[in-house]
Amino acid sequence: MNRIDLRFKILREEGRKAMIPFIVAGDPEIETTIELVEAMDEAGADIIELGIPYSDPLADGPIIQASSTKALLNGVKIPDIMEAVHKIREKSDVPLIYLVYYNSVFRYGIERFMQEAKKAGIDGLIIPDLPLEEREELMKIAGNYEVYLIPLVAPTSQERIKKICENGKGFVYCVSTTGVTGVRQDIETNIKDYMDIISKYTDMPKALGFGISDSEMAKKFKPYCDGIIVGSAIVKKIDEGKNKTEIIDNVKKFVKEIKDVL
User: Fold this and answer.
1) Chain centroid offset of residue 59 CA
2) Strand partners, 230
3) Which of 27, 41, 46, 60 is catalytic?
4) Cα separation, 134 vs 78, whole angstroms
5) For residue range 204-261, what is the model confidence (pLDDT) as tens digits?
6) What is the pLDDT of residue 183?
């Protein structure tokens, strides 16, 4: 059983919701990324997203864009990230997902990327710019390596939600609002109605992301979904840390605060 399925099965049995943090691999540098994953795992993270840095991350707001730029300036490349995942797997069995833009996969070679991701210990992929009409080949290759391609829907998806979720695996990444990622004070979308619409088309777990910035927001929205995704707020704490120890301590504390309300 894929680690993602197993984790959601355990969470359902325990009546809890998933805490899914996101960080950019290689920010501030790759060794800290490894230690951050281990710290978030210890803090109770259920699934961890690792962003593969990209020069034009169209779905990301300024906080994650800046993080991705720093990682690229550090010279971090896909083989470095694959090797980091190998090292993480020596100590941790937490489900791991790559958030990666399609051009990075295509240029690396789809087959090569999937093979190395599986060998490293990656459980799933989120590809925010993969058009629905062009995902068949990639989904087939991912399936051959038992790497889940996680569907991503938005409030504007409407009648496309059914098609987007078809053959998807793991969970549905539910974008909370229109626009890009970023820390928000509130989310205007009617989350209950939005989740109800998605539930008409799939029984996969639903994880809500984009704009959830603290434990209060996580607590507010947890009744309507199966997991909460937090990215920009964590990346911001990494940026604000004065040194590695402070970065890891602050992120670990923040992840635990959110996990405690879920």
Assistant:
1) 13
2) 21
3) 60
4) 23
5) 999 998 878 899 999 999 999 999 999 899 999 999 999 999 999 999 999 999 999 9
6) 43
Evaluate whether 27 touches 53 at the Cβ level (below 8 Å): yes
Q: Is 49 a catalytic residue?
A: yes
What pTM value is reported for the model?
A: 0.93
Question: Looking at 41, 49, 116, 123, which residue is catalytic?
Answer: 49
Q: Alpha carbon of 109 to those of 54, 104, 137, 138, 141: distances in Å?
A: 16, 9, 12, 11, 11
60 included as an active-site residue = yes
Cα(202)–Cα(68) distance, integer angstroms:
32
Cα separation of 252 and 44, whole Å? 9
Q: Where are the domains of the chain?
A: 3-255
* 3-state DSSP assignment of residue 125: strand
Let me know: does 18 contact 60? Beta carbons within 8 Å.
no
Q: Per DSSP, which regions of 64-184 are E strands?
A: 96-99, 124-126, 148-149, 152-153, 172-175
Residue that the structure tokens 């820390």 belong to: 183
pLDDT of residue 191: 86
Architecture in CATH of 3-255: Alpha-Beta Barrel (3.20)
Comparing CA positions, the residue from 90, 88, 195, 18 lying closest to residue 98 is 88
pLDDT band of 132, cuts 50, 70, 90: confident
